[in-house]
Amino acid sequence: MITEKSLLMIPGPTPIPPQVAAAMTQPMINHRGEAFFSLFDEVSQGLRSLFRTEQPVYIFPGAGSGGWEAALVNTLSPGDTVLSVSVGDFGERWVKVARALGLTVERLVFEPGQAANPGRIAERLNADKARVIKAVLVQHNETSTGITNDVRTIAQVVREHGALLMVDSVSGLGALPLEFDAWGVDVALTGAQKALMCPPGLSMIAFSERARAASESSKMPRFYWDLKAVHSSYLKRQTPYTPAISLFYALQAALRMIQAETVEGAWARHRLMGAMCRAGVKAMGLSLLAADEAWASNSVTAVRSPIEPKKLRKTAREQLGVQLAGGQAELEASIFRIGHLGYVTPNDVIQALTATEMALALNGHPVELGAAVTAAQREWVRHLHG
């Protein structure tokens, strides 16, 4: 049996399209020359369209974790208080970054499977009469739990208080609606290795005018992540240090693909795949981690596993050629995740559901083979009929 072919269905890094991989083979160019200026212009415009903003979108070398740090060090000062709205493991990791930087962190934690409640956020911010809280940190899409937060409503609540709203959209941007300007977001960040269909290595961040103004009084030490240096270079169509040129080429190719599909088209495709995946999971008799399906993510589905998740994933990977993701932190032993973002189609979702059904059957769990695929197909047909 051919074993080299494998379908990657995890929430990042995601599959890379052939044209994106090919783009990285282009020869090196002078990063201070006209060829790079042209590349920089096209990528910058594509990112502004994706973020739905007229503000600059800056490209930092690094993963989303670097984006967390860049957001904090450019807008805050040591000892400032931030409110972390956490619905999962990545929210908790941003807390660790904030504390390591000397910030005072107040946590508003929601149980895994729950979305952030804008009413509870408003209640806490309304109690902050002295306006001690300088920023609110929230995940657009919590990758570890498959939960999407209502960023639009949260943004309204935060704006009434006056704090900066910082949004981690690493597994959201490009897959789920995010309107940076229209919703009043102050900082939004993402990584190249998710819905943007690129290899890991780039973090993209948008700062509002309010956030850039806050950087003028920020006292955080910074050098590599310095917004002032990046903005100054941005105006010259450059970066303050040698850019990852091959990754810029990859991003250019990926953004062209998104432009051809349209941002709204990408949202619709991910919405379909989310609906198909959830329908298939429920048809297997399994439960979603999401307590309310209205919060369930269209880029990654978290499923309560009826058998040991590592065993299920091992079977799917080694015998069926499909790679699923495990749970994180306290969810490691209870869930598995199916990623469906980026360079993924409805056919891939059907294959992932097939592998999940078969892995359950091979491990002795009673399941009706074909039920998940049938349920997913019904969703797809419904979509095609409009």
Query: pLDDT under 50 segments (min length 5)?
Result: none
Globally, the shape reads globular
**What gyration radius follows from the Cα positions, in whole Å?**
21 Å
Number of domains: 2
CATH architecture of the largest domain: 3-Layer(aba) Sandwich
CATH superfamily of the largest domain: Type I PLP-dependent aspartate aminotransferase-like (Major domain)
* Residue share in helix: 40-55%
Major sheet description = 7 strands, mixed
| Total of helices | 14
Strand content: 15-25%
Give a brief rundown of this model.
Helices cover 44% and strands 16% of the residues.
Defining traits:
386 residues, alpha/beta, Aspartate Aminotransferase, domain 2, Aspartate Aminotransferase, domain 1, 4-stranded antiparallel sheet, 14 helices
Overall description:
With 386 residues, this protein is of the alpha/beta class. The chain has 2 domains: 18-260, Aspartate Aminotransferase, domain 2 (3-Layer(aba) Sandwich), CATH 3.40.640.10; 262-385, Aspartate Aminotransferase, domain 1 (Alpha-Beta Complex), CATH 3.90.1150.10. The protein is built from 14 helices and 15 strands. It has helices at residues 18-23, 34-51, 64-73, 89-100, 118-126, 151-161, 180-183, 209-217, 227-235, 245-261, 263-283, 309-320, 346-362, 371-385; strands at 7-8, 57-61, 81-86, 104-109, 133-139, 141-142, 147-148, 164-168, 187-191, 202-207, 287-288, 300-304, 322-323, 325-326, 335-339. The strands form 4 sheets. The protein has a 7-stranded mixed sheet with strand order 2-10-9-8-5-3-4, with helices on both faces. It has a 4-stranded antiparallel sheet with strand order 11-12-15-14, with helices on one face. A two-stranded parallel sheet has the order 1-13. The longest helix is centred in the last third of the chain and has 21 residues, at 263-283. The two termini are 40 Å apart.
